[in-house]
Amino acid sequence: MPSPSSLLAFGLAAAAPAMAATAGSIVEVGDTQVSAMMMFVGNNEKVYILDKAEGNQAQVNGHPAWGAVWDIASNSATVMDVKTNVFCASGMHLPNGSYVTFGGNGAVTVGGNIGSVLNQGGGSAAFDATYQDYDGSRSIRILNPCSSSDNFDSADCQWFDNPEVLSMQKQRWYSAAEPLGDGRIAIIGGFVNGGYVNRNWPNTDPATEGGAAEPTYEFYPANGQEPQVMQFMIDTSGLNSYAHTFLLKSGKMFVQANISSMIWDPNTNEETRLPDMPGGVARVYPASGATAMLPLTPDNNWTPTILFCGGSDLPDQAWGNYSWPFVNTWEHPASTDCHRITPEPEDGSTPDYVQDDDMLEGRTMGQFIILPTGKLLVVNGGKNGTAGYSERTLVTTSYSDMPFGMSLASDPAGTPAEYDPSAAQGSRWSNKGFQTSSIARLYHSSAILLPDASVMIAGGNPNVDVNLTTFFPTTYKAEIFYPSYFSASTRPQPQGIPQKLSYGGSSFDITVPASSYSGSANDAADNTHVAVIRPGWTTHAMNMGQRYLQLNNTYTVNSDGSITLHCAQMPPISNIFQPGPAFVYVVVNGIPSNGTLVSVGSGNIETQPTSDVASLPASVRLDSASGSADSSSTGNSGSNNDNGASSHTGAIVGGVVGAVVVLGIIGALIGICLSRRRRAASRQDPSNVSAYAMSNSPSSPGAGFASRGMMGLGAAGAVGGGLRSSDSSAFVPMQ
């Protein structure tokens, strides 16, 4: 295990100037081995990738792979074994730096058909002998990210995936996941089984849709709490898959589905309804509009505002049923509309949606990536249609007549665009100088911010199984998009970075050397801020858990041109930025440093310790000081890229995730703590494993907690109606 000092040294080394790319360019960089339906950044070195169970050519342990780990330095992927079908699961970080994914689909075989060993009732499968995938509908899978120095053959670096040991209480497919301020995760809604949308038509059973909808929520760890019905999931029936969820400062949660919105109290299950989405524009899957929480800054007192852009205004009936849409979706333009809402206004006003600038072009499946500058990048998606795939619609009744294969979207939107929330209304969008990708990034595409502040784009697979010859084929090529700040070849190289951030507490200093910038030191100090960014868990045009928080700081300009940033810790409210891993970027004149991995909070699932906010010294300027970097290497001035940051906002850059304390959680049925080294338990002989605990991460020391195993593969529930366990058009309506 590396020492804390060596981890710190690595964090600093990662901040070396290395910008050799062209600003605005999109560069193909390698093959992901599996189509990137899901991605998350595990640490400074690795991105983890998940696909649905399908016939990828890449093999692992004698079956097609649907998991991989991407090495950022070499732009190469290595397959990983995932036992259950992770198709359209949800995912999130945990406080100790591990990652967890919830649910998925039943076992499938070639062509997306139901696997060979059926669950009771025959509506889904427990296992398939060809693809060797197991039912993932209740699965809870945990991974502790590893570094290149670790042994990836060890169980410590692999997915733990055994529903007979660790599982949810309900089957969930397309569920939402949102962490609470203590690190627990709320898991909301989803399909039990189904197809395009989770409803019949006419919609006579909005609660369960004949047994294929799940209107409840549960927590991980459950800690004795049973699933409860969420009325909002009944009221939004049919268009509430992957509901948009954002924890608010109060500890309540903003939830948006169909065209409805509410504030939900996870402690009491009380709902406060908010206005509907203007214009009848749906943003959730399969409309799949882009959504993100805007940057939380000292200027807005870290008050959440959520932005929605794009999606679809199809009328309600047009969405059809489990089987297929009732219109040719690819003929319907995606929305350009953007609205924002502040669910808990601090002035006491009534929350309402506010019109924002329209996007430059309509997008379904567009995805927001929050950049270190505080701007939002939108990538991927299509200009027409919706997410999902099908063999037909109510109008086009034969697959042979489907113009884009199974895709329900058309006209890929290949040019990224940038949204500046601090710009004057009417001038917030730009794509000036941005290249256009030639790769269609439609359904099952993904994107995520990398530690060097570039954006990885991958995936794209609107097909029930691997198809390399259709109009929009299964895609394995990864790309990197280089935002505008890559015009600079010199990057800030902050020093004195702590490894952990607390909620309140003593301030700390970060030094920005004179070699990190050019021109006036006073101007550079005025235009420096520090962003704590959680890139999130990306799937289906969402980055679950993505947040951006700007820390408070003052500064001292030194005679040698260096700048000392006097930084406050995180605000003393863990609901604002939930505990867990994050990257920190120091941004000088609009140019970010490389991100450094930090641990926010205690590393445990618990009420997070808080302290009073430390007072910061007054800023000290020095007119004679200046940076020593070549002005030709430092790119644009901060006016375009610094998002209005000024001397009262500031920097906190951390090291790598520090040690976390062992925490045991007692489940309702079983409470146990085990070593991570027992994760290699046999999937086919669950008697070899008594239980499982999220434990020490090989690259992040610390221990986690155990949770109960609820139901095994053989106990998975099933629904009738002859549904096929994928979202292809082979579904029939539930009866």
From TrEMBL:
Record Gene3D superfamilies: Galactose oxidase/kelch, beta-propeller (2.130.10.80), Immunoglobulins (2.60.40.10)
Domain Galactose oxidase-like Early set: 491-600
Residues annotated as signal peptide: 1-20
Domain named Glyoxal oxidase N-terminal: residues: 133-485
Segments of this protein annotated with the region Disordered: 623-643
Keywords tagged on the record: Membrane, Signal, Transmembrane, Transmembrane helix
Ranges annotated as spanning the membrane: 651-674
Pfam families in UniProt: Glyoxal_oxid_N (PF07250), GO-like_E_set (PF09118)
Name the record gives this protein: Glyoxal oxidase
Taxonomic source organism: Dendrothele bispora (strain CBS 962.96)
